[in-house]
Amino acid sequence: MCGIVGCILKENKDVAPILFSCISKLEYRGYDSIGIATYDNTINVKKGKGDIETVNENLNFEDMKGDFGIAHTRWASTGRPTDANAHPHMDNSQSVAVVHNGTLENYTDLKEELIEEGFTFKSTTDSEVIPNLIKKFMDEGKSLEDALRKTTEKLKGSYAIVAISKDEPDKLVATRKDSPLIVAYGEKGYFVASDTPAVLEYARDVIRPDECEVAVLTKEGIEIHDKNGENVKWESKYIDWTPEMAQKEGHPHFMIKEIIEQSEAVKNTLGQKANIQKIIDEIGDVKRICFVACGTSYHASITGKYLIESMAGIACDVVIASESKYTARTWDEDTLVIFISQSGETYDSRMALKEARKTSKTLAIVNVAGSAMTDEAEFVIQTQAGPEIGVAATKTYIAQLTAIYLFAGLLSKNGELIDELNKVPAYIDEAVKEREKIKELSKMYTFAENIFYLGRGFSYPIALEGALKLKEITYIHAEAYPAGELKHGPLALIDEKVPVIVVVPPGEDYDKTMTHIEEVKARGAIVLCVGAKGDEKIAENSKEIIGINPEVTDIIAPLVYTVPLQLVSYYVTIEKGYNPDKPRNLAKVITV
Fold it and tell me: Active-site residue 2, yes or no?
């Protein structure tokens, strides 16, 4: 959830402007404070609570001297958002500075031990024990690297740590466990970061150290060492995202830019067809498939279940990652466990992946090259959405769905479905062109405190995703139900104050869905339908209709009908005066 950057320049130039530029590109991870530490004969630290622009106006980060340093954006977990709790943290002697992402489960015990030894603390975070432990071990004669390694032996929990010391200038050391951390290099110098968008402007050759390995960065280069301090042979991956791909390109928000980019994300991900066929061939026969995911990826997984069971006849389960330990007991050698994660770093999914590897074949569908799950899963499908900055997933979700459709179509040898997928980019572009109309009708829903979404069959996960987007960025309570469940409780909540959004594409569930529209209309609900353009029956039975190309069937509807629901959420958010890119209390990557 926190953002980390470290940099050491090859030449003796001030690093602060580069650190500030890099850390600013990690705003999407969610944060409440920012800080930078640089070395210039001593370690200088500036940090404060608040947004990056405001804190920088007060502190002027870019004036800091020094040619190497570390930076951090914090999202409060242990300790409230305050200036004192902002990173970097230093030891008592002000000789070691550290930035940390993760949660330490045993920090209170470690803190008590250090206090008994004479150490004092300025913050209420778990992270402050780390620089004091490093200093303690350096005072015992250990190098900065060995002191970091000794420190991590005492830590329980998750961490990505970068440390510098004035006693070993021109060096950064970094390590991780259950939290993301990459190492990268470019013409100007060497970097560590939580995520690739931070460093794209300066470095696109990326290394991902294994857990508990220590990366040592100096002006001369990068070394990766194992737990015994021995050199590890590393390989880098070139990230072909350009810095411009992570910018708004004239759009008011990243979210609308990324919604518009979805047709391109589908086109690019369809290019993975040959790779996916190869994976299917290597996996061989399986008797059962289990999807494991969180949030938006969970909704993509439900679509995957419907596709695979209906087309390939293989039994599928869908499990929320944080609840997977109960299902994990049933995984065996005949089970393929598919993990879906935009970042490839989602903590609960990674923990489940570690369990699945003990018994089953594993496949990860991720968007970020070089992320943890690309190393940990037996098979990997990398979606081709490019960097997504908006916290609420849009194009990464559609790219996930595209990969799932390809997998299901190839697994079931359904050539008709594969052919249909090639039409999806054009369908999405048509849907995006309706955004001015959607912008206007969205104004009707700003009054609502509760909104229901309904769908049957393949439309049910569309409704789930629509409701999630609305609650994420508008803060309106939204719930999605299979339309057939209305009479089993939810209908009691429907009245003229509760708008109902119904997903009703052409297909076998069309007639039944129309009866559910009648049910909510009879209770006074304002009904918005997303259905086939020109469908007079829908128009007669709803307040408003968002029209989709009538060639889009219920089977491929999740790839297309999701788009106008994203736009509804976006424009309701704008109308309410909120920032859709930075929803409160949420972050892009959940690593704890």
Answer: yes
